[in-house]
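Our collaborator T.R. sent over the components below with a one-line note: 'Predict the complex.' Nothing else. No constraints on interfaces, no templates requested, no preferences about which chain binds where. So this is a plain run: every listed entity goes in together, and whatever single assembly comes back becomes the starting point for the next discussion.
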Amino acid sequence: MKKKALALLLGVCMVTMTACGSKAPEAASGTPAQEADGAAGGEQEAEAPADGDGAAAGEAVAGVVWYNFADTFISNARQTLINIGAADGTITITDADSTNDVSTQTSNMNNFFTQGVDYLVLNNINTGAISEICDQILDEGCYGIFANTDTPTDEDFAKNDKLYSVSSVATQSGTIMGEALAEYWKAHPEADRNGNGKLDYVMLLGIQGHYDTTVRSQYSVQALEDAGIEVNNIGGEIICDYSRATAQEKVAALLANYSDDIDAVIACNDDMALGAIEALKAGGFFAGEDSYLPVCGVDATVNGCQAIKDGTLLVTAMNNPVTLAKAIYKVMYLTNNGEEVTTETIGLEGVSVDGHRVWLDYSPVTIENVDQATYDINDTAF
Ligand code: BGC
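Returned assembly:
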């Protein structure tokens, strides 16, 4: 650990563990731990690893900048990472909330640089400035790990041996939604509600420019077209920032004009799918068999899985926050030990390594397998 980091560690941990540890999603073993509307659920104290003096001091310090603590998926990944760090004790995890604001992200990063962290983990929202951020990380001399966001370019990686990215293969999640919707459409001629021969869909996007949302929207529609289905977009690009409330509001507004035309909703995460379902219910959908409308999502959150069981959500793509946290921690653990990061050394199911890019697989979740779609944020084995 750098001296600067050691000197500031105690103070940082006190602040971080109080702010971060006080609200944690509750997790029953073997069960996804999520909470309604992205708000944190049960209380759980995150324990700081303690050395002989009672100070939280691992061998290295990580400053983790998350885009938004209130995001359901992120809150689960975040809490798992805190849990792993506390259980293992090698890497001390401190983190900060960018509250979906680029300037807050920048000051969070700068604070961690000032503190001299060994690892800067960035769940980046400033997608227009990736190379600049990479250059800043290079100047600071610490490791940089881009997490669950656009990956740096080959050139960025070539400049810095200490640069990594850990993300899911977003293309898979789009394809999973599109293929399930294509299958439903072909099996249900009545799904063409206005009889125009086209699948009229609404696309709910996350944060503008965010890699996952761009790719999920493209690949879901591509899968429909590949299945020979003619599609028609209703409402254009509807940006909902991955937020349930925003999605609910925007779908409700669309229903005023297009209630008889919409055949499906494709949402780039489960929170937005759940917001859409609420709006659809208020608009008279899901009242009986003849008022069903297929809605697709991504993440397999607890509430997303419940919606599948309830018969409202057609499909979701398992985006495992526990695997994300484990992969991030493992990259730090391996590099801290001077070991290479490879698919074998990472050793996590569904995770592969290509150069300094670490990729996580998605898998489809439907009514057929929803009971197996589980993870446990208290699972600290990495
Ligand atoms: C998840 C979203 C989340 C976003 C935040 C995505 O991978 O699917 O639920 O809001 O990451 O960056």
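Summary for T.R.: Confidence is low (pLDDT under 50) at residues 2-56.
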